[in-house]
């Protein structure tokens, strides 16, 4: 029933919210501010201690920039980059900020909103477009800062591997324009093209073949 669906959706939302709160409460202060997209707090922390700009969280190894990229906080990312945050630092999973920008996808709450609002004047469709544009803007900011486009994480995946896995049609061209290596093999022996072929993402497959 509709009531049951709404109750289940509310429960899922509450669980996600509690999980996020617990994660944030354990973070190093500047990373927490970045997760919260609290630019004012970041400004205060960096004014008191400039070394907070590239500090790494003890548990995850995340920097404030990586923390912001995990959640796609564009304003926070711009602020950190304007202050010369190091785009090359990696966390304990050997991931850079670009890895997290490439792994960004619609959240469960986004999908829920789209499903509910799609019949209402296509509002769900416009929400989806807005999220995709934001993800592209985040990646463009990082690429302008000369991050290593071919850095690989502990799974051997580059940013291009992840955007191919997620069928990110807006992000693949951005990486290819920066000469992302299409021949890197991850720990499973797959190149980005192998992933696109396996998942039958024909448009991405065409983009990758055309770039050779």
UniProtKB/TrEMBL annotation:
Tell me the superkingdom of the source.
Eukaryota
ANK repeats sit at 60-92, 155-187
Record keywords: Transmembrane helix included? yes
Q: Where are the transmembrane segments?
A: 108-129
Kindly give the InterPro entries that the UniProt entry links to this protein.
Ankyrin_rpt (IPR002110), Ankyrin_rpt-contain_sf (IPR036770), ANR22 (IPR042802)
**Pfam families per the UniProt record, alphabetical:** Ank_2, Ank_5
Give yes or no: UniProt keyword Glycosyltransferase.
Answer: no
Secretion signal span: 1-26
- Which terms are listed as keywords in the entry? ANK repeat, Membrane, Signal, Transmembrane, Transmembrane helix
Write the protein's name: Ankyrin repeat domain 22
Organism field: Amphiprion percula
